[in-house]
Specification:
about 375 residues, single chain, 14 helices, alpha/beta
């Protein structure tokens, strides 16, 4: 009798365990899966002097998104861009980031483009646990700024260094006059350049100018009087460089010139001042048209927009950034904290800009190469 009771209770326990298991399984299977579009916030300068960067960047982002969505999206979910005009300044970038995070509820923001945008938006993204991914901001001040920030465009620490090495050691320019726009990007390039150049023993004479300035005659007159070996035009945008170069011409001044990648990347501007810029040195994050992904991007952009891809150095990293986000979401889901952590695992990711590796400090591994202006075109510099 006791044995029959024991068997009965044993079977009761078994039945209860099975029932609980079935209940738990059915409950877990009803956990809602993520649906709807994968929203990507975008911060770009769409107005002002830097609008030429923003318009090209927006086109590249939209091109990449259309390609990904046509191929099935991210695990069946379509990508949706939410674009804000961050106007190449910290104030508007902060407002854009707040809106994207608190109202649009995005988990990742593409941008900023200008370094000042990214520097201002980084603490806002960190507070919201949203990943901030810049394909254009290059200030050395962004290195290791936050675990939520990363970039696939290299730091200008390399740009300033190689420019200084070429100017001092190859060109034998021992004294350089600098006109620097008061922005985070231009300041970052100058800091890197001056550290190396003065470290070699060179001398720098610098004048600063506000972005709103349009009359540089007094500044240029001072710099010309310094009798420097070269003039370094360190601006945020080609529009500012255009105004300065015109007034250098108006002064009848023909100095040896150094330009940063912001100016060198504008093909039309370099051609416009080809005589004044002949022999000017610069440094860019080079693009490789023989790279099959890059050649595809160039052809697709031409077909869709009936124009050549502007600022190829930036266009290649902007295109890659959208595809990297696709891969991040596929790997870790639509979660800003996890995407930020994923970025530090990226190694030899292949795209239009070549192999991308992100270091533990959030920077892309790699840097700039020195170039020279010849007959209105920017070419690789050979000593």
């Amino acid at each position: 009798m006791e044995g029959q009771k024991s068997n009965f209770f044993t079977w009761v326990v078994v039945v209860v365990v099975i029932a609980v298991g079935i209940f738990l399984y059915s409950t877990s299977s009803k956990v809602p899966q993520e649906t709807g579009p994968v929203k990507i916030g975008v911060m770009l300068p769409l107005t002002g002097d830097a609008a030429s960067y923003g318009e090209g960047g927006r086109n590249v982002y939209q091109l990449a998104v259309e390609e990904i969505n046509a191929a099935g999206g991210v695990d069946g979910r379509q990508i949706e861009l939410v674009i804000e005009d961050s106007k190449c300044n910290g104030k508007d970038a902060s407002s854009a980031a707040q809106k994207l995070i608190n109202i649009d509820k995005v988990q990742i923001i593409l941008g900023g483009f200008c370094s000042g945008e990214s520097i201002a938006a980084t603490p806002i993204a960190a507070a919201g646990k949203v990943a901030l991914f810049s394909p254009g901001s290059s200030s050395p001040d962004l290195t290791n700024i936050s675990p939520y920030f990363f970039r696939n465009y290299p730091s200008d620490a390399s740009q300033g260094k190689v420019l200084a090495e070429t100017a001092y050691n190859s060109k034998q320019w021992k004294k350089v006059a600098v006109i620097q726009e008061q922005t985070d990007y231009a300041l970052g390039v100058f800091k890197s350049f001056s550290t190396s150049f003065e470290g070699f023993g060179g001398t720098i004479v610098k004048e600063e100018t506000e972005t709103a300035n349009s009359d540089f005659r007094s500044i240029l007159t001072k710099l010309k009087a310094a009798n420097a070996d070269a003039l370094f035009i360190d601006t945020q945008t080609p529009a500012m460089s255009d105004r300065i170069l015109k007034q250098v011409q108006d002064l009848g001044w023909k100095p040896a010139i150094i330009i940063n990648d912001a100016t060198a990347g504008d093909v039309a501007l370099v051609m416009k001042y080809k005589n004044l810029l002949e022999g000017a040195i610069t440094a860019e994050f080079s693009s490789d048209p023989k790279n099959p992904t890059m050649s595809k991007l160039l052809a697709s952009y031409k077909t869709k927009f009936n124009a050549d891809l502007p600022f190829q150095a930036y266009g290649q990293t902007e295109y890659d950034a959208v595809y990297m986000i696709r891969d991040a979401v596929k790997t870790v889901g639509y979660n800003g904290e996890k995407i930020a952590a994923w970025s530090r695992t990226v190694k030899d990711w292949e795209g239009a800009s070549g192999k991308v590796t992100i270091g533990s400090n959030g920077d892309r591994v790699g840097g700039h190469t020195v170039e020279v202006v010849k007959a209105g075109k920017v070419e690789k510099y050979v000593q």
